[in-house]
Amino acid sequence: MIGGVYTKEKCPVCGRRFETIGDDLTCPKHHTRPKRCFIHLYVKSLGKYINIYSDARGIPFSSYEHALRVLTKIRTEHDEGTFNPTRYVAQQLKPLQFKNWAARWLDGREKDKTMTAISPSYFKELKRFVRIFVDFFGDTDIRDIGNRQIVDFYRSLGAGYSAKSQSNVLSCLHKMLCDAQDYGDIGLVPKFPKVDIAERDFDIIDLDTQDEIINSVTDATDKTYLLFTARQMVRPSETRALYWSDLDFKHGRVKIHRHFSLQEIKPTTKSKRIKILPLDGQVREALMKLPRHITCPFVFQKNGKCYSESYARKLWNKTCAKLGVKISLYQGTRHSSITAAVERAGYDDVQEFVGHTRREMTKRYGKPNVDRLKRVLRDDG
User: Fold this and answer.
1) Does the structure show a pLDDT above 70 at 367?
2) Is residue 270 situated within a structural domain?
3) How far is the C-alpha of 147 from the C-alpha of 157, rounded, in Å?
4) Are residues 103 and 161 both part of a single domain?
């Protein structure tokens, strides 16, 4: 492989072809130079001559010197057996530039969303993460992202991201690069730094406060919505998705098998598990008193439309504000109820009831009962 630097342009003054003179491509009479150059060389592995118009970053050759530097690099790669023409041929280079590759990957994930593989809320986060990646990596060839680049990206996140957020961002990037490896676009997935995440401290309220909040709601449907979420210890998104057909009043049971992701209903729970739960006595009584809409299948609806995420959240926040309580809907209902249930029934039964796949998940919600732990002391005061 020898190759050379050429141009298709001619001297704008005399119209003559540019000539290679020393280390320059110029018009010998008027000393003008071309604005665009290209490399012409024979690639034995392809069995043909190719023209290269840009460097490995996709930047077009704007001078003879620029093109000659790349040609020298290509010759070195050829001698070392590492030359890959796809790193220089624009048609094959552009799809592997990170911003283009990421856009195509995200498009594929969006198609997964339509096939219910991922939730709309998760896809919304993916789009946010990809914007962060593109801002950092830009036109970088995805094959050039190695251990150093990953560490530099991690450090670029800075103090504006919590440890949990940093972990989520890195996990998404790792997934992207694993997919790139599966597609054959990269050889190895670089190493990722481990992010130490401190144990999360959940806010909870006692059951008396929880009951006070729920009982202060005057609208029967709104009150039952909060009561069902708290007593059945389900996710608010699962309560919103409850159909009348999911309720078995005769046997005092409820089937939890769908949830909302943003405003889109999904045919499974978040954990992809179907739960058949006994109905709390007060919940059963409250549900049986609710009116049913003639066409709307949802239990919790207003004028034939199911509760939105914002309506349910604002309902809880408004009620809490009147009582001077500050806690989220999720923590004030599900988290607080699970914590109290662990003290009543222990981890094993609660884990089965709420549908956690691992015991450690349930233990995160339970908080130590200080009064019970006094038994450990020799003198509990």
Assistant:
1) no
2) yes
3) 16
4) yes
pTM of this structure? 0.62
Residue with token string 């986060």: 125
The C-alpha atoms of residue 149 and residue 168 are separated, in whole angstroms, by: 18
61 class by beta-carbon count within 10 Å (0-12 exposed, 13-18 middle, 19+ buried): buried
Question: Does 378 reside within a domain?
Answer: no
The total number of residues shown for the chain amounts to: 381
SS3 162: coil
pLDDT tens per residue, range 254-288? 999 988 887 778 877 777 788 999 999 999 999 99
In terms of Cβ atoms closer than 10 Å to its own Cβ (0-12, 13-18, 19+), residue 256 is buried
Q: What share of the chain is helix, strand, coil (3-state, %, to 5)?
A: 50, 10, 40
- Tell me the residue ranges of DSSP E strands in the chain: 4-6, 19-20, 25-26, 38-43, 48-52, 247-248, 253-256, 259-261, 264-266, 275-278, 301-302, 305-306
Joined together, the tokens standing for residue 54 give 């840009």
Q: Which domain holds residue 265?
A: 207-371
pLDDT digits (tens, 9 = 90+) for 33-92: 998 899 998 888 778 888 888 887 778 888 999 999 999 998 888 888 888 877 776 555
User: Alpha-carbon distance 93 to 348, whole Å?
Assistant: 55
